[in-house]
């Protein structure tokens, strides 16, 4: 964003517009004073924000309590809590087949399993990587970039790269072949497809969490370690007594952010497996998308009710984060 | 405890390698292979012909079989082990079952030799199948998809920067009633994911007539709370005295925003611009919902659609995946430090 070079010429029309806009805006300022200008500065963003975030947020409740396949609210009859009752109608919540909307509960339990595995594995891997990147290694910036690289890739690109590698005759099975093992149907076997989704998701996102943990590690004062070294404290003790407690605020942020994002898992998994084989990688967001739009028997009200239930989980997680970060912040 | 924070090179004090040094390098090198490997494999595969892609085990580099002209036609070349044990390079005229009729390309008039196909190997050399890249643009709609993606990304980023910075300016440089309420509202929605408002957002966009319109993809994404938050935090650090001095010189409020605050907030704007480009280029779920006409697909949606077809044409898909990766790789190579600084500082993504 320097003043010279290409940016200068690219932004020339914008600057010209801004200069032209000053004439009417100056008149507006004379008429309405500073208050009018504040309103004007806030208007574009807040208008777009209201129309596309706040109003839909409020409308969701209306959708979840009305029925039919129409999207226009006036055409939708009021049905009260029917959608919620349908979603929660279950003989045994642990057994999706005993539920009226078995798909919903399949998605719920798949998502729960996914969250546990993905967040667990990812936090562990990110932690180890951050500890290693915090050591005195040459070309630190390069190694940090290596682990960060997949974070920027689009979910479609991530999904397709791994579909190509995990396909029947792909690189993964070549590796199995070289090791003298039987090839595996990574994406068409119910068991492996789920773990493929977990692994690919860890691959794509761990770099982001590594950066947050690394920032935390770098903020730990070096003299603490030097003091511990003088006392001859064994290394594992140092880790538990110095590194871990001081890293706790960052670790909590990582855990909660990862949880919130894992609950919303959709795109990579959708491109990778399309929810299959069967329903083994069908997650909450895909359930909402499909029951609201994609299915022949679409039911926007049901999708809205499911999304509100998911929002409740996210709100609880967000509140946990606020509470934890405040507590962690207060400790310092 | 040097294994936790080594201060000078390797951890040992001239005592040679500690096991943690070895573990570190195994992790780093293994990590590099695992992180870069898949993308490198994608790029190498994207230059292979369909025949080479179907091979197992696959080769690392893209190879293509050599051909030679025999009597006006291109015929594939093979290294053949003949019945008498001699090894020659011959062209295949035709093949019936497991027997091929082969002829020496230098002596096409001779009687063709009958060769079992198990006794020959194709003659190959490294050859980049660049038609994987050109054909999707010429024969399929990928040029349109690319154009749509560029349009969405550029427009959304410009509007994001403009509206977010105006709001951030108002929220950081003026005292007014309700300011805290607005800030609270913005922070509260930081965590509202798209999937939670998917159904009502769809109907709002349908009601505004933006269905199957690229603006329907752009507008809902531009008022990012993250952007407002990031820019506001930065603008708070700009001293108010600068603004007061400008007012003394009869600058209008708009000029103060445009001529003073925006240039000073350039570092934060750069971070937001980079993030916005990456976000919008990579967007998937929302365009998938809004766009159902093929000529409006973005690159991501187009790729997913073609990759979801029954008969996946992997040679095109892989090449187009590489194209979809290019802008992000450029950002990564040239602007990575802005991003890492942004994440470490704000936890933004």
TrEMBL record, chain A:
Localization per record? Cell membrane
Identify the residues that the record assigns to the ABC transmembrane type-1 domain, covering every copy: 108-321
Q: How does it sit in the membrane?
A: Multi-pass membrane protein
Under the heading InterPro entries, the entry gives: ABC_transporter_permease, MetI-like, MetI-like_sf
Looking at the UniProt record for this protein, which Gene Ontology cellular component terms does it annotate, in alphabetical order?
plasma membrane
Q: Which UniProt keywords apply?
A: Cell membrane, Membrane, Transmembrane, Transmembrane helix, Transport
| Membrane-spanning ranges | 38-63, 114-133, 145-165, 191-217, 238-260, 302-324
User: What are the GO BP annotations of this UniProt entry?
Assistant: transmembrane transport
Q: Which PROSITE patterns match?
A: ABC_TM1 (PS50928)
Q: Which PANTHER family match?
A: ABC TRANSPORTER PERMEASE PROTEIN, INNER MEMBRANE ABC TRANSPORTER PERMEASE PROTEIN YCJO
Similarity comment: family membership: Belongs to the binding-protein-dependent transport system permease family.
Q: What is this protein called?
A: Alpha-1,4-digalacturonate transport system permease protein
From which source organism is this entry?
Paracoccus isoporae
TrEMBL record, chain B:
Transmembrane portions of the chain: 25-44, 150-170, 182-202, 214-235, 256-279, 314-335
Query: What InterPro entries does UniProt report for this protein, alphabetically?
Result: MetI-like, MetI-like_sf
- What is the membrane topology listed in the Swiss-Prot or TrEMBL record? Multi-pass membrane protein
Signal peptide from the UniProt entry = none
The Gene Ontology CC terms held by the record are: plasma membrane
Boundaries of every ABC transmembrane type-1 domain copy: 146-335
* UniProt KW keywords: Cell membrane, Membrane, Transmembrane, Transmembrane helix, Transport
Entry-linked CDD domains? TM_PBP2 (cd06261)
**Which Pfam families would you find in this protein's record?**
BPD_transp_1
Which GO BP terms apply? transmembrane transport
Q: Where in the cell is it found?
A: Cell membrane
Hey, which family's this protein in? Belongs to the binding-protein-dependent transport system permease family.
Output the PANTHER family linked to this UniProt entry: ABC TRANSPORTER PERMEASE PROTEIN MG189-RELATED (PTHR43744:SF12), ABC TRANSPORTER PERMEASE PROTEIN MG189-RELATED-RELATED (PTHR43744)
- The name on file for this protein is Alpha-1,4-digalacturonate transport system permease protein
Species this chain originates from: Paracoccus isoporae
């Amino acid at each position: 964003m320097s003043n010279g070079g290409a940016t200068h010429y690219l932004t020339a029309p914008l600057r010209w517009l801004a200069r032209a806009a000053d004439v009417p805006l100056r008149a507006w300022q004379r008429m309405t004073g500073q208050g009018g200008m504040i309103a004007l500065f806030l208007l574009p963003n807040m208008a777009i924000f209201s129309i596309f975030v706040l109003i839909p947020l409020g409308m969701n409740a209306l959708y979840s309590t009305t029925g039919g396949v129409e999207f226009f609210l006036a055409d939708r009859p009021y049905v009260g809590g029917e959608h919620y009752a349908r979603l929660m109608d279950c003989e045994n919540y642990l057994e999706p087949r005993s539920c009226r909307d078995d798909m919903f509960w399949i998605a719920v339990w798949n998502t729960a399993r996914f969250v546990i595995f993905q967040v667990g594995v990812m936090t562990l891997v990110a932690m180890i990587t951050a500890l290693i990147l915090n050591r005195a290694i040459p070309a630190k910036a390069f190694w940090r970039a290596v682990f960060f690289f997949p974070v920027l890739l689009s979910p479609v690109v991530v999904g397709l790269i791994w579909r190509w590698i995990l396909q029947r005759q792909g690189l993964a099975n070549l590796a199995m072949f070289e090791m003298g093992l039987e090839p595996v149907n990574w994406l068409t076997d119910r068991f492996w497809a789920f773990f493929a989704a977990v692994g690919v998701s860890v691959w794509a996102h761990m770099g982001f969490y590594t950066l947050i943990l690394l920032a935390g590690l770098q903020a730990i004062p070096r003299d603490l370690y030097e003091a511990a070294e003088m006392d001859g404290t064994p290394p594992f003790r140092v880790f538990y007594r110095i590194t871990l407690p001081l890293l706790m605020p960052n670790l909590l942020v990582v855990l909660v952010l990862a949880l919130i994002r894992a609950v919303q898992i959709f795109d990579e998994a959708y491109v990778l497996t399309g929810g299959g084989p069967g329903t083994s990688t069908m997650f909450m967001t895909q359930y909402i998308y499909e029951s609201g739009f994609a299915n022949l028997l679409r039911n926007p009200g049901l999708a809205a009710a499911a999304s509100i239930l998911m929002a409740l989980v996210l709100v609880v997680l967000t509140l946990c984060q606020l509470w934890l970060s405040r507590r962690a912040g207060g400790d310092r | 405890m040097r294994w936790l924070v080594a201060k000078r090179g390797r951890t040992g004090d001239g005592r040679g390698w500690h096991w943690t040094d070895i573990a570190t390098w195994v992790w780093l090198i293994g990590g590099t292979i695992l992180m870069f490997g898949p993308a490198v494999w994608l790029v190498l595969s994207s230059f292979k012909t369909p025949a080479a892609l179907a091979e197992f085990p696959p080769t690392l580099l893209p190879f293509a079989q050599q051909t030679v002209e025999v009597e006006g036609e291109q015929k594939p070349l093979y290294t053949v082990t003949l019945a008498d044990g001699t090894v020659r390079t011959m062209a295949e005229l035709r093949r019936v079952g497991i027997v091929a009729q082969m002829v020496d390309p230098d002596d096409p008039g001779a009687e063709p030799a009958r060769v079992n196909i198990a006794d020959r190997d194709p003659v190959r050399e490294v050859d980049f199948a660049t038609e994987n890249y050109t054909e999707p643009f010429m024969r399929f709609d990928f040029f349109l998809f690319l154009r749509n993606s560029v349009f969405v990304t550029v427009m959304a980023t410009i509007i994001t920067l403009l509206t977010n910075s105006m709001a951030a300016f108002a929220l950081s440089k003026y005292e007014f009633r309700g300011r805290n309420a607005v800030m609270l509202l913005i922070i509260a929605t930081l965590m509202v994911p798209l999937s939670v408002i998917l159904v009502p957002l769809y109907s709002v966009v349908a009601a505004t007539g933006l269905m199957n319109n690229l603006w329907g993809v752009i507008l809902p994404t531009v008022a990012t709370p993250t952007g407002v938050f990031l820019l506001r935090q930065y603008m708070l650090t700009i001293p108010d005295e600068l603004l007061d001095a400008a007012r003394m010189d009869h600058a209008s409020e708009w000029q103060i925003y445009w001529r003073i605050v925006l240039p000073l907030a350039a570092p934060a704007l750069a971070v937001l611009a980079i993030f916005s480009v990456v976000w919008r280029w990579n967007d998937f779920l929302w365009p998938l919902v809004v766009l159902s006409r093929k000529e409006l697909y973005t690159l991501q949606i187009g790729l997913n659609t073609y990759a979801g077809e029954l008969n996946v044409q992997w040679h095109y898909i892989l090449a187009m995946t590489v194209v979809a990766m290019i802008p992000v790789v450029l950002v990564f190579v040239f602007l990575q430090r802005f991003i890492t600084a942004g994440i470490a500082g704000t936890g933004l993504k």
